[in-house]
Design brief:
Largest sheet of chain A: 5 strands, parallel
Number of helices of chain B: 16
Number of strands of chain B: 0
Distance between the termini of chain A: 42 Å
CATH topology of the largest domain in chain A: Oxidized Rhodanese, domain 1
CATH architecture of the largest domain in chain A: 3-Layer(aba) Sandwich
Radius of gyration of chain B: 21 Å
Number of strands of chain A: 11
CATH class of the largest domain in chain A: Alpha Beta
Number of domains of chain B: 1
Oligomer: heterodimer
Structural class of chain B: mainly alpha
Largest interface: A-B, 26 and 27 residues
Order of helices and strands of chain A: HEHEEHEEHEHEHHEHEHEHEH
Number of helices of chain A: 11
Shape of chain A: globular
Number of domains of chain A: 2
Largest sheet of chain B: none
Strand order of the largest sheet of chain A: 1-7-6-2-3
Chain lengths: 354, 430
């Protein structure tokens, strides 16, 4: 983060700024390491639109052998957090989309991780490098056995992304504050501007778990029927169907509209209760995803537009339901801009045509 | 700045031809003399009832805003910060143009002390708030939302245009806003000009941004000096200016000891112009508190947003205004009809109106094609200047210098140069 300026305006502008920042700072996976384990049974995948064999040597998706942990080990309630704020074994981390939200008031004892600098490599389009991340979490006083509780604005979008990164880098105990900042605020709970400091922690970062992250080539091998997985597109139906290239106001665009062939569309918001922002119950989630053919019998790949928001759905599927789920963090801004990969566009929108 | 001429104006005699805010008051005094006692009581009742109505309306609006979707606490707070500013601006005559003109032309530095006090108290407040938001200023981040802008030739041009525009319009943007509440008829015309000027600013933005602003440095003193060092330098500069201008203060009038009673407090609040030091200190306190709870003070975001939305809806703006929404300052936006800043300036006009009624300074002034034209032109220059500088005397000067942004000082010096030019050309007498 050194040398980087976060120039922010009013809340309204901050939002616009956040949108602009997406340009510069997206996680991504150019040629991410993927384990060379035996492939899942190769079954012809859903309709493939004129697949072109680019990167046909991609390694297939690896089941991680994930099982659902007890719910209270992945989600904490606002009541639980309020009681455990001062516990030395708990570290609360805010990851908000809008810059300046943490600074103007945060949950007591929470530290601030900035999604566009702390969780990404700011030069390569990639997630934060392991040594940089290790220093970051040690500075935040995190030990290897610390219970990390993440929360943020916008329904925990980027808090869930932080949760994915913590899990990817091998941290054991990672939880989300169910309902995030909105629920904490709605309940009128305490906020502070005091920034805590902690003694340096001893947490170490392991090699990224390849089962949790896929690259473009991995996805392509699924599209081409060389590996078996179901793909979930968590964007809006209009983006999925190619009616629009990106929602109003977003600057990061793809040259193609539509979705990855064979992907099913479950907008991220369907996984939460609208009123409280909390995740739906495991039973409701199971039904929701089963209704589009995602039942945990096959590995799952989730993606969105720039790669962060899909972590929210990843969190529900991986941590609440215990499915094998990997995040394709290149997402549509990589796929829709890549030369030689197929897309599905039910609307038939063509870039530049009116 | 006051040494441009000799000290002959030191006694503080007001120039009757100029647009000082003295006129309506004198006129109302004259009127009062011609009214009968009964009429006077009736007029007073009407004025007090009017001010009470304003208060009732603002309270009602607050209750509605508190529960209205999309508004809530920030809107309510902004509304009341605006009311507070309106009262202080009106009662202390915190009009950047009037204050500086008195200093330049009449060798009277009284009002300057209000600005210095606002900046000194604002700096103390900002050190506390920014220090809480961003404990370590040396790490390359800036405190959230603070008005720390890029320093480029555009900022200088914007400041000069703003200074010239102030002379033509007879007030800066915040000055025109509070004088709407005093019935100054040129003010709405000047503000219309500001809207037009903002439009011109948006048209010129992309060229200016690519040529000058994109590469411009953003300098924030605490990043180098720490909060303590920046505050010490800040207070030293303000203190130095304060000492330098002491010879240009008129003598204090002799005042006999008097009992403190409700009527003497009323007279102090609504009879005479407030002392510049508490006036400025209150502005500084409101500024720091506004930054703590909502956003830094500014008065152009709503005006600019109106221009931007109208032009956007008419399809008259470039599809993209490069970098504009990533820069810190009085940010404009397309869409929302009334922004948080809108409630602030609404409150400012309401507060000034109520204060002017109570002080018997509300007087609808006359306009002519000539003085409307100069107000409009001045407004256009100020609007353009404020757009390309990302704020005006409040947003860049007050909120910028208070947070130790070098951009605030650069804008101020450029604006003083523009104003000096405008006064030399006698633009305020056109």
């Amino acid at each position: 983060m050194k040398g980087l300026r976060s120039v922010v305006g009013t809340p309204a502008v901050a939002l616009s700024l956040a949108l602009v920042l997406l340009l510069a700072a997206c996680g991504g996976a150019p040629a991410a390491p993927v384990a060379e384990a035996p492939a899942a049974p190769v079954v012809p995948a859903a309709p493939v639109a004129e697949a072109v064999p680019v990167g046909a040597d991609a390694a297939p998706i690896l089941p991680s052998g994930n099982t659902a942990p007890p719910l209270d080990e992945v989600l904490v309630s606002t009541e639980w957090l309020a009681e455990n704020l001062d516990s030395p074994s708990v570290r609360v981390i805010e990851v908000s989309v809008i810059p300046g939200v943490y600074e103007r008031g945060h949950i007591p004892n929470a530290v601030n991780f900035v999604w566009h600098t702390d969780f990404v490599d700011t030069v390569n389009r990639d997630i934060v490098q392991p040594d940089v991340f290790e220093e970051l979490i040690q500075q935040a006083g995190i030990n290897s056995d610390t219970t990390v509780v993440l929360y943020g604005d916008n329904n925990n979008w980027f808090a869930a992304w932080g949760g994915w990164i913590f899990t990817l880098y091998g941290h054991e105990d990672v939880r989300l504050l169910d309902g995030g900042r909105v629920k904490w605020e709605a309940e009128g709970r305490e906020l502070t501007t005091a920034v805590p400091t902690f003694p340096i922690g001893n947490a170490t970062v392991e090699a990224a778990n390849p089962a949790l992250r896929v690259s473009k080539n991995d996805v392509l091998s699924v599209v081409e029927g060389k590996a078996d997985a179901v793909i979930i597109d968590i964007r809006s139906p209009d983006e999925y169907n190619g009616v629009i290239f990106a929602p109003e106001g977003f600057q990061e665009l793809a040259i193609r509209a539509g979705h990855i062939p064979g992907a099913v569309n479950v907008p991220w918001g369907k996984a939460v209760n609208k009123d409280t922002g909390e995740f739906k119950s495991a039973e409701e989630l199971r039904e929701l995803y089963a209704s589009v053919g995602v039942d945990g019998s096959k590995p799952v790949i989730v993606y969105c537009r720039i790669g962060e928001r899909a972590s929210h759905t990843w969190y529900a599927l991986h941590n609440i339901l215990g499915y094998d789920v990997a995040l394709y963090d290149g997402s549509w801004t990589e796929w829709g801009n890549s030369v030689g990969v197929p897309i599905a566009n039910p609307t038939g929108t063509i870039w530049g045509a009116q | 700045m006051c040494r441009l001429r000799t000290r002959r104006g030191r006694s503080g005699a007001h120039n009757n031809r100029s647009v000082t805010s003295q006129q309506p008051h004198e006129r109302s005094l004259r009127q009062r003399a011609t009214l009968g006692l009964g009429q006077l009581a009736r007029a007073t009742t009407i004025r007090i009832a009017g001010a009470a109505l304003v208060v009732v309306a603002v309270v009602g609006l607050s209750l509605w805003l508190q529960q209205a979707a999309g508004y809530g606490t920030p809107a309510v707070l902004s509304l009341w910060f605006g009311v507070g500013l309106g009262v202080v601006f009106e009662r202390g005559r915190f009009c950047f143009f009037c204050i500086l003109r008195e200093c330049f032309e009449e060798r009277n530095s009284t009002g300057i002390y209000a600005i210095l006090a606002a900046l000194a108290v604002g700096g103390l407040g900002y050190v506390l708030v920014a220090g809480a938001f961003l404990p370590d200023p040396s790490r390359g981040r800036l405190p959230p939302g603070a008005h720390i802008g890029p320093i480029s030739p555009v900022l200088v041009a914007g400041g000069v245009a703003f200074g010239v525009g102030m002379c033509l319009a007879g007030g800066c943007i915040s000055g025109l806003l509070y004088r709407v509440g005093e019935g100054y008829s040129r003010a709405p015309i000047g503000l219309l000009g500001v809207l037009l000027g903002f439009g011109l600013g948006f048209y010129s933005w992309n060229t200016l941004y690519l040529s000058f602003i994109a590469q411009a440095p953003v300098w924030w003193l605490p990043a180098w000096l720490g909060y303590g060092g920046a505050l010490a330098l800040h207070l030293a500069i303000l203190g130095g200016v304060a000492v330098w201008l002491l010879p240009f203060l008129p003598n204090l009038p002799a005042r006999a000891a008097q009992p403190i009673s409700l009527s003497s407090i009323g007279a102090a609040l609504f009879g005479t112009r407030w002392n510049p030091l508490p006036t400025g200190a209150l502005v500084g306190v409101i500024g720091a508190v506004a930054y703590f709870r909502v956003e830094p003070l500014g008065v152009t975001a709503q005006l600019g947003s109106i221009s931007r939305t109208v032009l956007h809806d008419a399809g008259a703006l470039p599809a993209r205004l490069y970098g504009l929404d990533t820069l810190a300052g009085c940010a404009t936006q397309v869409g929302q009809a009334i922004t948080t800043n809108g409630w602030l300036i609404g409150g400012l006009v309401a507060g000034s109106f109520a204060a002017a009624l109570l002080a018997n300074r509300f007087q609808i002034s006359s306009i002519t094609p000539r003085n409307s034209g100069t107000a409009l032109l001045g407004g256009i220059l100020m609007g353009w200047g404020a757009m390309v500088s990302l704020g005006c005397t409040v947003g860049v000067l007050l909120s910028g210098i208070s947070v130790f942004a070098l951009s605030g000082w650069v804008f101020t010096l450029a604006m003083l140069a523009g104003m000096w030019l405008g006064l030399r050309l006698r633009l305020h007498h056109l």
